[in-house]
């Protein structure tokens, strides 16, 4: 008798598949669940990273500090009110001038004592080894002792020799300047500046910054120690401009930019002045004057103001971006030396102002 096993054998795989099917579905469901958690975790982590990066970007760029405090708001309102008040006073002053009023530099009161706000601080650029030049200035136009104090108190003219420090602090050069200053009391020593002929532009910047912080004057002047000034004439001229907020006074010139490194007036940054190789309009370095607002600007921004090879060009470059009045001065009116005016070649300019 033959036994047919075909049907039984065909049924066996179906039974085994039926037993494995629920297990496969469960594993698939578990795998899908774990994959879902993994994907969700990655998305959450990416979202947290994006939030962190956005906050960090805002912090570094300052965009996240859009809100201002109540105190800041009150300050803004107060500044606007002061601005309106200033505009009103300017209109009143203009009307008064139209009626014939002429402004005059007058003393200010401080409590019960009367004091005169300095009209001008004159910084005479000097250096080590130039005592003979300083003595010549003292014997000509700069008074000494009690007369120097009288010049400050009665005429509001403060004059100081400007000298930096030696690269070797406390050496013979420093001691000589300190000894001379103890005797004459007519120095402004720049402790933050190393004395060097190549660093004159930085020295001039340091002078204006320190003078603006030390003296509350209306004007500040830079003068070389071989220039002789008629202080009375200079004072009278400045009194006609004291009510202007931003002025730049001097013998205005341009001049060639020299790219030859062997030339006396070589400018390392000559390529910045264009193909014409000509400087912009600036006051000659022998003497120039700026108003208090301009000196304060230099003091605040001293760390970022660019200097060139020459101090007059450097100061002139700072004036380009400011709303200053350029006062064209005939120096023969304020200099005692006719030769100095011829040397400065200032007679070709008329006194006046340009925007």
Automatic annotation (TrEMBL):
It is an enzyme of class 2 (transferase). Its cofactor is Mn(2+). Signal peptide: none annotated. InterPro entries: DUF4094, Glyco_trans_31. Residues 23-98 form the DUF4094 domain. It is found in: Golgi apparatus membrane. It is a single-pass type II membrane protein. Its main location: Golgi. Its EC number is 2.4.1.-. Pathway: Protein modification; protein glycosylation. Keywords: Glycosyltransferase, Golgi apparatus, Manganese, Membrane, Signal-anchor, Transferase, Transmembrane, Transmembrane helix. It holds the Pfam family DUF4094. GO terms for cellular component: Golgi membrane. GO terms for molecular function: galactosyltransferase activity. Belongs to the glycosyltransferase 31 family. This is Hexosyltransferase. It comes from Panicum miliaceum.
